[in-house]
Design brief:
By secondary structure, the protein is α/β, with parallel strands linked by helices. It contains 20 helices and 10 strands. It is globular and about 60 Å long.
Length: about 425
C-alpha cells in the first residue's frame, strides 16, 4: 500500500498557491444565473464550515509536510483536523500540479494512527464492525440479512455478472438495490448477488485503518474473481473497487467493473436502449464525488501515467475525463420530458453532498451544513428535483431537507429558496420506473 513517505515527493509539489480552495479557480469570470453563484466560489466543504486554513487542503498539505519532516508530532488534534474532510477531491480538480491531494490526506490519517493515535470514536467502530464475522458492515446489522431484500437467485456461480450491493443499499437504502436489480432484470442481464459479500472497505480506507481495509479488499477480490463484470449502484463502492483496489494492492482487478448508470449509458450511446416513457419535471443533477469526479480524475491520470508526450496526452486525458463527466447527462437527456437545469458547480467542480470520508458519522453537523449548502445551490436553479446516483448522497440530502422542513415548522419561515421543497430522486429508481 502507498505510504505517506512514498507520497513525499508528490506533497512537495504543493506551492501553497491556494487554488485548491476554490471551484473554477481557472475560470474566475464564470457567470451564473444569480449573483450568489457567479465567479470564483470556495469549493472545500471543510474549509467553508470550519473557516481555518488547516481545514482547507492547502493547510493539510503543509501540515503533512511538517509531519513528514518531524516538525509536527502525531496527535489527536492533528487526526481530528485530517479526518474532518469529505475527501471529495474538489481540491485535486483545481490543482495545476496534479497533486494527489486525497491520497495524501488519507495517507496522513493512516500515518497518524500507525504512530499510535487511536482512531476517532465513530471511525474505530467502523473497523470493529467490519471485522466482526457476524456483521462485516459498518452499520452493526446482522450479516445474514445482507441479501434479505433480494428476491432473485443468490450465489449463482453460472452468472457472468455480479451485482455488488454495498452496505448502505443493503441495509439503509434498500429501494436503490431493489430498483437496480429490477433494471437488470428488465435489460435481460443474467446476474447474481453473493451472500458472502462484505463491506468494500471504503469507510475503513478513508479513515486511515488500513489493516482492516487490506483484509476486506483481498476477500472481495477473491470472491468476485471468476465473474466477467461486477456492477455497482453505490458510487463509493465503485470508486473503491475501480481506483483503490489496484492502487492499494499493486495488482489489476481480475474482473471488469461498471456503475449501473454507466451500463445504461453504454446501451443508450450505442442505440440499443431507447427510453419511451416521459418524466415531465425540472431536474438538477448532483454529481457524486466518487463515481464522477474521482473516476474522471483517475481516467485522466491513467492516460498521463502511460504518456510519452504530455503536451498531447494531457489534452487527451482532459478530453477523456470530460467525456466521463457527461455520462449521467447523456442518460438524463435521453428521458423524454425531463428538463435539466444545471447547478453552478458541476462535473469536476461539483460541490460535495457532505457525507463522505467518514464525516457523516464523526462530524454530523458538518455533514448536514454541507448538504444544506448544496441544496440551496440546487434550489437556485428553479428545479423541483435534485437527482443523483449514490446511496450516501441520497441519505444526506434527505436529512438536509428534513432539517429544513423542521426549521420551517418551528419558525414559520419559508425556506423553499434553501431547498426545503426539493424532492430527492435516485436516477436508478427513476430509470426502473421508465423502462
Amino acid at each position: 500500500m502507498t505510504s505517506l513517505e512514498e507520497l513525499r515527493r508528490v506533497n512537495a509539489r504543493c506551492i501553497h498557491c491556494r487554488a485548491c480552495q476554490y471551484a473554477y479557480s481557472g475560470e474566475p469570470d464564470k457567470e451564473g444565473e444569480t449573483e450568489e453563484y457567479t465567479g470564483m466560489l470556495q469549493g472545500c466543504p471543510a474549509g467553508i464550515y470550519y473557516g481555518w486554513e488547516g481545514y482547507f487542503n492547502s493547510g493539510k498539505q503543509w501540515m503533512t509536510r511538517a509531519f513528514l519532516n518531524g516538525e509536527l508530532p502525531a496527535s489527536r488534534e492533528l487526526l481530528e483536523i485530517a479526518e474532518a474532510c469529505t475527501t471529495c477531491g474538489m481540491c485535486e480538480t483545481q490543482c495545476e500540479n496534479y497533486i494527489d491531494t486525497v491520497a495524501i490526506t488519507e495517507a496522513l490519517r493512516a500515518a497518524v494512527i500507525e504512530a499510535g493515535v487511536e482512531p476517532l470514536d465513530k471511525h474505530k467502530g467502523f473497523a470493529v464492525r467490519v471485522g466482526d464475522d457476524g456483521l462485516r458492515n459498518p452499520y452493526n446489522e446482522p450479516r445474514a440479512e445482507r441479501t434479505k431484500w433480494f428476491a432473485g437467485k443468490v450465489d449463482n456461480k453460472d452468472a457472468k455478472v455480479a451485482y455488488f450491493v454495498g452496505c448502505t443499499a443493503a441495509y439503509r437504502e434498500q429501494q436503490i438495490a431493489e430498483h437496480t436489480a429490477s433494471i437488470m432484470d428488465k435489460l435481460g442481464i443474467e446476474y447474481t448477488v453473493l451472500t458472502d459479500e462484505v463491506c468494500c472497505g471504503s469507510p475503513i480506507l478513508r479513515t486511515g485503518q488500513r489493516d482492516v481495509f487490506r483484509k476486506v479488499m483481498e476477500e472481495n477480490k477473491e470472491l468476485y474473481k471468476d465473474f466477467d463484470l461486477v456492477l455497482f449502484s453505490c458510487a463509493g463502492c465503485y470508486k473503491t473497487f475501480r481506483n483503490d483496489y489496484p492502487t492499494m494492492s499493486g495488482e489489476p482487478l481480475p474482473f471488469k467493473v461498471r456503475h449501473a448508470v454507466e451500463y445504461v449509458y453504454d446501451l443508450v450511446a450505442e442505440g440499443k436502449l431507447k427510453i419511451e416513457k416521459p418524466y415531465s419535471k425540472k431536474v438538477t443533477w448532483h454529481d457524486p464525488c466518487h463515481s464522477i469526479r474521482h473516476v474522471g480524475i483517475a481516467i485522466e491520470k491513467e492516460i498521463l501515467e502511460n504518456s510519452e508526450n504530455w503536451l498531447l496526452d494531457s489534452r487527451a486525458g482532459k478530453k477523456a475525463k470530460e467525456k466521463h463527466f457527461e455520462i449521467p447527462r447523456v442518460v438524463l437527456n435521453a428521458i423524454p420530458g425531463l428538463e435539466l437545469h444545471e447547478m453552478y458547480r458541476i462535473k469536476g467542480d461539483s460541490f460535495c453532498c457532505g457525507a463522505g470520508g467518514g464525516v457523516k458519522a464523526q462530524f454530523p453537523d458538518f455533514a448536514l451544513s454541507t448538504a444544506k449548502e448544496r441544496l440551496k445551490e440546487a434550489a437556485s436553479t428553479g428545479s423541483e428535483v435534485i437527482m443523483t446516483s449514490c446511496p450516501f448522497c441520497v441519505t444526506n440530502f434527505t436529512h438536509g431537507i428534513e432539517a429544513l422542513q423542521k426549521e420551517e415548522q418551528e419558525t414559520g419561515a419559508d425556506l423553499s429558496a434553501a431547498g426545503s421543497k426539493l424532492e430527492v430522486v435516485e436516477l436508478l429508481e427513476l430509470l426502473d420506473s421508465l423502462l
